[in-house]
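re: the backbone from monday

yeah here it is again, tokenized this time
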């Protein structure tokens, strides 16, 4: 299963397969059951993750008790809550497993120790994080300037698997719309697709 991590790391490094295997040797991999809460909103995060298999949802609950889905993390995606700018370092989000998950588990407290042992790992991690942050920034910019229908089509193009892996109400929350609006958009999209096929 670690082969997924090694293949991902290859995109950001010139290291050989054997060097990457050495870097990932001893990396803890843990299985989590569907429904497991990895992080509660308000807690201080001490762990980061990398998804080898499964789907993790990032969400927040507002003062009215309404859940707002912020993101979904699936295979080959890292899951880290960036909150160092926060005064009390507490997380504004929760993380939960939507499926049975196999995750690489990183201890933020021993992160520097790992970098000291493998100096090349720090540069590799920074490169991967910059790529993640860049992609998130681009997605957010596109999100705020697009209509709900455009967001749905972008999702269909970039992450169609989510349509079958995620409950519709969570997907609607992620797109910033009501579940009934998502149903209407899906119907219009399917009707449009049928016309093109005909």
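seq for it, each position gets an aa:
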């Amino acid at each position: 299963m670690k082969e997924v991590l090694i293949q991902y790391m290859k995109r950001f490094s010139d290291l050989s397969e054997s060097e990457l295997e050495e870097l990932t040797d001893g990396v803890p991999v843990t299985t989590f059951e569907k429904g497991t809460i990895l992080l509660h909103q308000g807690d201080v995060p001490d762990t980061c993750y990398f998804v080898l298999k499964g789907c993790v949802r990032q969400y927040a609950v507002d003062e009215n008790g309404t859940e707002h889905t912020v993101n979904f993390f699936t295979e080959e995606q890292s899951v880290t809550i960036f909150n160092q700018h926060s005064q009390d370092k507490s997380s504004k989000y929760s993380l939960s497993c939507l499926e049975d998950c196999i995750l690489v588990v990183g201890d933020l407290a021993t992160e520097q120790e790992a970098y000291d042992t493998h100096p090349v790992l720090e540069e590799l991690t920074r490169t991967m994080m910059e790529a993640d942050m860049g992609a998130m920034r681009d997605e957010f910019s596109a999100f705020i300037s697009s209509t709900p229908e455009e967001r749905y089509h972008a999702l269909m193009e970039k992450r169609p698997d989510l349509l079958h892996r995620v409950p519709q109400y969570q997907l609607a929350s992620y797109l910033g719309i009501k579940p009934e609006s998502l149903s209407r958009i899906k119907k219009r999209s399917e009707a449009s697709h049928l016309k093109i096929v005909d």
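The chain has a mean pLDDT of 83. The domain at 2-112 is CATH 2.60.120.10 (Jelly Rolls).
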